[in-house]
């Protein structure tokens, strides 16, 4: 599962073009979509995101007006991501735009979703699935830049949800990640936080392998809870300093049990 699957996941029925704009602009500003990257065409975006072509067209027009994408003509033309100026990174970063209440609510939802997935996965996943998750955690540990770390983290979470053997849980996790992934990328500039997150995954992996349902749920909940606390602390620092989103954490996330 790639970052593109998260960015272009269905956003639900009855949504307006401003929700498509929010999804894509957050992905661009957070670096999940890179400068000069080509977006899918209108029909493909409509299919992937579950909205009408008219809604997609309106959203792309808004993104062009905000200078987040541009349109190129010709044989290899289409909509391409623009480089993001420093002032836009500061003013439009999703962590700055979200309220503390929104972050707390999102963290609580994510905790509930991942902890329940972990409990089910501890009972339902196979030895081969345990091995694949361990390999994905290895890739997360090896990732060197914030965007690669965030994407590897999201793959770990999606894999965990899929190992619960519930299509509904996996789809809900994909929906949550559309909001979570751009926020997580802003934290993974910090090497110590990344190392703590890897260690938390290792402890969770141990509980899953042992088939310990209670410990799996608790460790998954603690892991997402620690990330939520870091997001809230980072937002407070950004709001106080009014600066660009470069984290300087004062403390590591609390250890998981």
UniProtKB/TrEMBL annotation:
Ranges annotated as biased composition (Pro residues): 246-257
Matching Gene3D superfamilies: GntR ligand-binding domain-like, Winged helix-like DNA-binding domain superfamily/Winged helix DNA-binding domain
Pfam families xref list: FCD, GntR
Region listing for Disordered, in residue ranges: 238-257
Superkingdom of the source species: Bacteria
Domain spans labelled HTH gntR-type: 14-84
Molecular function terms from GO: DNA binding; DNA-binding transcription factor activity
InterPro entries: GntR_C, TF_FadR/GntR_C, Tscrpt_reg_HTH_GntR, WH-like_DNA-bd_sf, WH_DNA-bd_sf
Keywords of this entry: DNA-binding, Transcription, Transcription regulation
Protein name: HTH gntR-type domain-containing protein
Annotated source species: Achromobacter kerstersii
């Amino acid at each position: 599962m790639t970052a593109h699957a998260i960015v272009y996941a269905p956003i639900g029925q009855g949504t307006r073009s401003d929700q498509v704009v929010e999804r894509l602009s957050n992905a661009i500003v957070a670096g999940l979509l890179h400068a000069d990257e080509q977006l899918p065409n209108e029909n493909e975006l409509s299919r992937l995101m579950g909205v009408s072509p008219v809604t997609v067209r309106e959203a792309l027009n808004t993104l062009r007006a905000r200078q987040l994408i541009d349109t190129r003509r010709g044989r290899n033309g289409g909509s391409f991501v623009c480089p993001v100026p420093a002032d836009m990174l500061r003013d439009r970063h999703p962590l700055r735009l979200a309220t503390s209440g929104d972050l707390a609510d999102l963290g609580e939802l994510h905790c509930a979703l991942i902890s329940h997935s972990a409990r089910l996965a501890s009972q339902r996943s196979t030895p081969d699935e345990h091995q694949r998750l361990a390999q994905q955690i290895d890739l997360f540990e090896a990732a060197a830049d914030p965007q690669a770390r965030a994407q590897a983290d999201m793959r770990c979470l999606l894999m965990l949800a899929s190992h619960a053997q519930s299509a509904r849980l996996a789809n809900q996790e994909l929906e949550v990640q559309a909001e979570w992934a751009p926020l997580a990328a802003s934290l993974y500039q910090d090497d110590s936080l990344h190392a703590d997150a890897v260690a938390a995954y290792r402890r969770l992996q141990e509980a899953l392998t042992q088939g310990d349902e209670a410990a799996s749920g608790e460790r998954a909940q603690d892991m997402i809870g620690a990330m939520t606390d870091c997001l809230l602390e980072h937002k407070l620092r950004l709001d106080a300093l009014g600066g660009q989103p470069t984290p300087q954490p004062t403390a590591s996330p609390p250890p998981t049990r």
